[in-house]
Amino acid sequence: MTPLTSFPKQDIRVVLFEGISQRAVEVFHDAGYRQVELLPKSLTGDELIGKVSGAHIIGIRSRTQVTAEVIAHARKLITIGCFCIGTNQVDLEAAQLAGIPVFNAPYSNTRSVAELVVAEAIMLMRGIPQKNAECHRGGWSKSAAGSHEVRGKTLGIIGYGHIGTQVGVLAEALGMHVLFHDIEAKLSLGNARAAASLDDLLERSDVVTLHVPETPATRMMFGAAQIARMKSGAHLINASRGTVVDIDALAAALESGHIGGAAVDVFPVEPKGNGEPFESPLTRFDNVILTPHVGGSTLEAQDNIGAEVAAKLVRYSDNGSTLSAVNFPEVTLPEHAGSHRILHIHRNVPGVLSRINELFSREGVNINGQFLRTDAKVGYVVMDIASTPEITSRLRAALNAIEGTLRTRVLY
Ligand SMILES: NC(=O)C1=CN([C@@H]2O[C@H](COP(=O)(O)OP(=O)(O)OC[C@H]3O[C@@H](n4cnc5c(N)ncnc54)[C@H](O)[C@@H]3O)[C@@H](O)[C@H]2O)C=CC1
Ligand SMILES: O=C(O)C(=O)COP(=O)(O)O
Q1: What homologous superfamily does CATH list for 1-109+298-327?
Q2: Each residue of 280-326: pLDDT tens digit?
Q3: Ligand closest to the CA atom of residue 21
Q4: Rounded to 5°, angle at Cα 398 from 395 and 400
Q5: Which ligand is nearest to the CA of 305?
Q6: Is CATH 3.40.640.10 the right assignment for the domain spanning 335-412?
Q7: SS3 of 146, please?
Q8: Is there a catalytic annotation at residue 270?
Q9: Relative to the CA of 268, which of 6, 33, 210, 308 has its CA 20 to 30 Å away?
Q10: Whole-structure pTM value
Q11: Out of 3.40.50.620, 3.40.1280.10, 2.40.10.10, 3.40.50.720, which CATH number does the structure's domain 110-290 have?
């Protein structure tokens, strides 16, 4: 039912999945949100749908799959926060067409990933994972065979974005040569050089590290053919997404010895939460560093992410601003104290704005401020008006009746 007033903040239900930092809860509390539920793990299937369908705001990390089906049941949901970088776990288009902006934290954990990757490059080049495993079993084999400094060796970075560039800078500080491959033209930092092609990078690198997002083009982009191109004995690091590397092809190359070692942080299927079993064809190799998707899991990164994404969600909920949303037209809005703010999200088809303006002029309501942004599929128009709850409520009902309307919200 259309509420007569702006939806009361104390009734807004926030559900945060996957052990999101307490910092996020503090941000919501400080902003006057009282119903914040923090869950330690991801949910799936009916459990997820049940939880999401009662929520106005959800926060997730990389594991929770917010599919079109989940969104179809999320009648109350106004916004989604990905407390991480990747947004591949959300059906962004389905969210957009349901009028739900999605936010993420594009920078806060990049340094943490870069540090881990550089440390792993050193460990792999020294053969430490297998030496460590042997010592744990009571063995001792002190030898320099197969152990190398990283200084003077070549690191190949696939995906030279926020993380890839930082990995390159740190690796150069250790005296490594840095090559990169990206689908976009990228400014090289330091002495890093763009490889002539992916194959060129693979043929020249002692360590190859992947920093691409999950997209249709990167899914299984690293398979037997790419591994075969790598130098014999070279090392592979994957802290991007588990779907990027053909894990069976990697296992076969480790088995044959063509790959000298690997560090893998992300897997095609990951456990839903701590304490759940982890299975991988890579567990049998001592020369593989396996980590439970912790590239971005430092206290520093999680604290910053908690604050950053929660602030974006609060701002959208309180004020309607969609600045930095990943699936939505971006509108930055001023404060609206003293006026009623009406948010109208619609399919981007001709005539919607003129019908909205006709409605306001017919009702004799003066618009103090109007903000509009569109993208290929969706239009987002925000109107600040001097009004009463009764008039705003009537206007909202009329706006909902305009063809192409996806959702309206009222803030005051
Ligand atoms: N293991 C972990 O805990 C973490 C993993 N990640 C993963 O790392 C990914 C990268 O993060 P950022 O560097 O911040 O992203 P970014 O968007 O700044 O950089 C990604 C780069 O990959 C390039 N790229 C895209 N498709 C490509 C392709 N087919 N071939 C070559 N290059 C391609 C892009 O042009 C861009 O330069 C994230 O999307 C996420 O999946 C991010 C943070 C933590
Ligand atoms: O930021 C990302 O994309 C990551 O992969 C980190 O994911 P997480 O928050 O650790 O589940």
Answers
A1: NAD(P)-binding Rossmann-like Domain (3.40.50.720)
A2: 999 999 999 999 999 999 999 999 999 999 999 999 999 999 999 99
A3: 2
A4: 110
A5: 2
A6: no
A7: coil
A8: yes
A9: 308
A10: 0.95
A11: 3.40.50.720
